[in-house]
Amino acid sequence: MQFPLSSSKPGIPGAIKKRAPLAWVGQSFLIILAIIVVAILGTNLVKDPSLFAQYFISGLQLGFVYAMIALGYTMVYGIVKLINFAHGDVFMVGAFVSYYCVARFQLHMWPLNVFPSMSVGLATILGSVSVILISMLVCVVLAVTIEKVAYKPLRDAPRIAALITAIGVSFFLEYFGALSFVYTPRFIPYERPFPVTAWYIQDGIHKVVAGVSPPAGAITFSNIFLIIVVASIIVQIVLQYLVRRTKMGIAMRATSFDKAAARLMGINVDNVISFTFAIGAAFAGLGGVLYAIAYSSIWAQLGILPGLKAFIAAVLGGIGSIPGALVGALIMGQAEAMTMGFISTPMRDAVAFTILILVLLVRPTGIFGEPEQEKA
Amino acid sequence: MRKLRIFSVLILAVMILAACAPAGGSDAGDDASSASAGEIKVGVLVPLSGQVSTFGVSTRDGILLAVNQWNEKGGVNGMKIVPIIEDGQCTPDPAVNAANKVIDQDGVHYILGEVCSKAVIPVSEIASAKGVLMITPTGTADVITVNPDGTAKPYVYRACFNDSFQGAVGAAFAFDNLGAKKAFLMTDQANDYVKGLSETFKATWLEKGGEIVGEASYTSKDTDFSAIIAQIKDANPDVVYLPDYYNIVNLVMKQAKEAGLNIPFVGGDGWDSSDLDLAAADGGYFTNHYSPDIQSPEVTKFLADYGAAYKDDTGNPKVPDALAALGYDGANMLFTAIQTAGVDDVDKVAEALDNIELVGVSGTITIDEFHNPIKDLTILAVKDGKINFETVVKP
Fold first, then answer.
1. Which pairs from B353-356 meet CB under 8 Å and 24+ separation?
2. Chain segment B345-359, per-residue pLDDT in tens
3. Chain A (25-64) residues lying within 8 Å, Cβ to Cβ, of chain B
4. Domain at A59-362: CATH code
5. What domains are defined for chain B?
6. Does the CB of A212 have a partner CB in chain B at under 8 Å?
7. Nearest-by-Cβ selection for A187 from B226, B233, B247
8. ipTM, two decimals
9. Model pTM?
């Protein structure tokens, strides 16, 4: 029997759908809000399409980064029903590890040191990829450690205990990282492993030359934007393949459906859970490096806001649903970019959290989420 | 019987705690008074961590250089200067805590600091209320030394010019020297320093007949300025006024360069830092308190002393930035005033400060009726990876 989550009177199973008396107030407010948003976006699109397109591009960039983080939230929730608030800080650790690899150890230059005759382009690619892989590896180790130390002992405890622990781990990572002998309490300008170049679209695609402004109405995008989009799409494809076509994927889906039954079928539930955390952390680490390259400033509390926005994205898309994480993240990215452009930059966080409130009010299970099934 | 036992234990605990407190209080009092017999304790509040840590390191180094020079000559009125350094992080809450700590626990009568206007303002309220003389070497916001009713705050002074002067000079420079007619303003609404400069710039700009083609606000935690940069490109100004700290300037100008924006940026003394990204800030100008390129005997001696005392990571003598120069001047102002007053009395020292005339590294300093110095302003240009001296503007 499915219990609909709409506004029927609580506590009466299978009741006739009776609306609460003043539901029309809330619903008309939401409809008016939706009309206003569409109107603002529509008029701006018509008035200045290239500006709108520019915001759209930065929205895509943000959205795809949030997608990488949101995957971790949604998968972990799907499996252990835990919102891993420390996920945003794993993202931060990824950014910092890559910073140290580049700035302290110059690891992005190793192909040139080992093979001096290699072409610079190939060496840069190889070096950057190795830096990213190292960051992803460290994030994986960190996440699996967190899971084993902090979350596993609480697997049978009430869910609030695990939630509080997750928040505790998050604070621990942030402020431990802010100690001088660990990372630093300062804001660090990030050193990129590869240079960022930009192109603009106006009668064809041209490269942006330093010191020359592109013509008015031209839309600019950078190579980091392309890398983020491509990397995020690859991550989605890899994850879809993993979840649908591999044995581990079946094990993950089984465990998320019913842990005890999966154990009875011979699935090593502990390994599956650790693997889920590991995959989520790897993608968060990748997102961290790309975010740091794009926005070139890192600090120990870097992961708080993107982590929260990715969490909102996961809720918006339906927490527990992997395509939902992508869709939710893209919507969040666009919302943030449009807010920065058409309202004002400081309002973007307010809009992000307003979206969370609206989702929880209107459709708590999210876009792709299903209402909780009663297990017969 | 059990209730009586619990009750008596509680009474005993309360008595022990009560006995501790006054003893602790009088101990601290004794410490303060015994220390000032042969020493003068000065609280030094600077940001050693946070977004603008180079400000704090420079200011502290400038202050300590002055302290050591005075102590080598026998101290002030024969009393050794003891600096008590606290990290204010250029943020109101930690700065207030640090100020309260040095005043209540360490018993200082003088504070040098804080560095950023938004942290100086609450500390100045505390200093005024508790009767502690405060000189901020670098806080430029007008409201630091002036009450809302227009009177000067007692015991609060600064060693630098204020933002109404700085913003006006910035606007005049952009209008007259750069020939700009259309300006775009970027403001961090939560930062009093940026807001003050932005407002004075705008007022002067409009007075001169310039046009403001756009205004954008952001927060100090932002790292993504793509929307604002897109708006700037759309509005097509002749100049962008970005009077914020170097960490924001680095991000904004780097992203602007990557988007192909080729418009000169003008800013304020917050740009002055060894962490300023010179490649990103290329083509920018900023108003500042001093330049190491100025040929004056004070600057030359200061460069030599500072370079001898502080070396950078490669072992070369460090070149002091404006914050170090202001820290040095602010400390010298304080010690000269204490020397003139002759006694460790805050009111007499404040009087001596009101009448001071000090030839410092950042110019000749005299104090007006609002406790602000009347000083020259230096304009610097960032070009080809270096900071060059552009011009000097007299008040």
1. B353/B133, B353/B135, B353/B157
2. 888 888 888 888 888
3. 48, 51, 54-55, 58, 61-62
4. 1.10.3470
5. 39-161+295-375 (3.40.50.2300), 164-288 (3.40.50.2300)
6. yes
7. B247
8. 0.73
9. 0.78
